[in-house]
Amino acid sequence: xxxxxxxxxxxxxxxxxxxxxxxxxxxxxxxxxxxxxxxxxxxxxxxxxxxxxxxxxxxxxxxxxxxxxxxxxxxxxxxxxxxxxxxxxxxxxxxxxxxxxxxxxxxxxxxxxxxxxxxxxxxxxxxxxxxxxxxxxxxxxxxxxxxxxxxxxxxxxxxxxxxxxxxxxxxxxxxxxxxxxxxxxxxxxxxxxxxxxxxxxxxxxxxxxxxxxxxxxxxxxxxxxxxxxxxxxxxxxxxxxxxxxxx
Length: 247
Prior knowledge:
By secondary structure, the protein is α+β, with helices and mostly antiparallel strands. Helix content is 46%, strand content 14%. It has eleven helices and seven strands. It has helices spanning 2-25, 33-41, 56-68, 106-110, 127-134, 145-155, 161-168, 172-185, 190-193, 196-208, 231-235; strands at residues 30-31, 49-53, 72-77, 81-86, 89-94, 113-117, 120-124. Strands 1-2-5-4-3 form a five-stranded mixed beta sheet. Strands 6-7 form a two-stranded antiparallel sheet. A hairpin with a 2-residue loop joins strand 4 and strand 5 (89-94). The radius of gyration is 20 Å and the shape is globular.
């Protein structure tokens, strides 16, 4: 019990120090991950990391700021992720998503939620962007569909559904699949939370797909939701891989 209490105190001290340093950097950021999920759902998870979202031109400033303070930093993936390390704890500095779809821009900050965490003023990722990012996490090792369902259940009445629809318009099938999953999991709550206009629009689009001719190019969009399980489609089954301009 004492070890667990010590770990919790150590973690809380890391969060306070990290958030204070982020604020001192003067660089706009937003917290995502477990802490945003807790804010929108009340679900708490023990974690040793902070997910910090920022624009592309801000992530290097954040890394440099922490490096100057003696933290170890790395550019983990130039396409979307950097890291800051402090012993067993670390900060993920995220400016896009692994599939390069959810690129952080000014509008994220415009709709961010201001709050206080561990006594430090901070900003949280908007619920709409949190859902947008999580809808693409459908790996064999990690599936965030339950997280999205819980956000919809607990925060759906406050969501800007039109903005979420705009975010996911290009990949509306992913949104429809998530809403159908929500309908399956929460049949008593679906009607009160999911706007009928949105569900009708998505179902109409799905129906209208049969009015279109079959696509000529054999494209697999699977890697947008799982970068490993659909590799065989590209490497062996002759499906075309997507580029950032063709997603």
